[in-house]
Design a protein that fits this description.
Elements lengths: L19 H15 L7 E10 L29 E8 L9 E6 L5 H13 L8 E4 L13 H7 L11 E4 L9 H14 L7 H9 L4 H10 L2
Amino acid sequence: RPFKCNFVEPNLTPIDKFRPENFARMVEYGDIVHRIDDKRRVHFIDESKVSGKDVYFRKVRKDPRNGSHPSIPVPGNFRDSYSMFASTSAWPDASHAVEAIWIEDNGDSFSTMFFFSYLLSVGHFRRGDIAVLDRWSGHFQGEASILEDFLWDAPGPDGAPMNILLVLLPARCPELNPIELVFHIIKERMRWGPYSVGILESALRATYSIDTEIIYKTMIHCG
């Protein structure tokens, strides 16, 4: 009898995730999170690519009557792609649970600084909030090398410093970042939205449909 086996795609785990220095960062990060009394103050921020494959289903069902495959009507810009910068907010009275911008170029340190300036301008942060980022170089090198001081000293509506604390996640630990789950939810909702509106409008609708209850659930899931 021939051997039968179903192959599945394995999880790819970088070896450097288990270096001693990264374990120390995990312990340090866990200690910081444990000492935060009001978890609503924590904002998780990251960048993700959004493209046509995130909007349109690649598979369709064959018509059993004639064997034909239906086509999917798409707008002319269905091949466009964007870099999406997003930040979560667990404040119940926040204007949006997810605040985001989309740019056509790949994200870099200049885009990071622009996004944080945008977040401050729309009142996304409150004094004493905490911004959590991963260790992508675009978050703390180049133009973003001043980000920590920029967030701490940024003036609020009353002119006093906002005192926003910047915290970096341990390396290779996306499972600790709730924004990764939020990106997945956004892309799932994009797939189920109307195809005719295009990628950017679909992303806008999906992003601003996220509420604080979802943000709470993703934070609990990530510990």
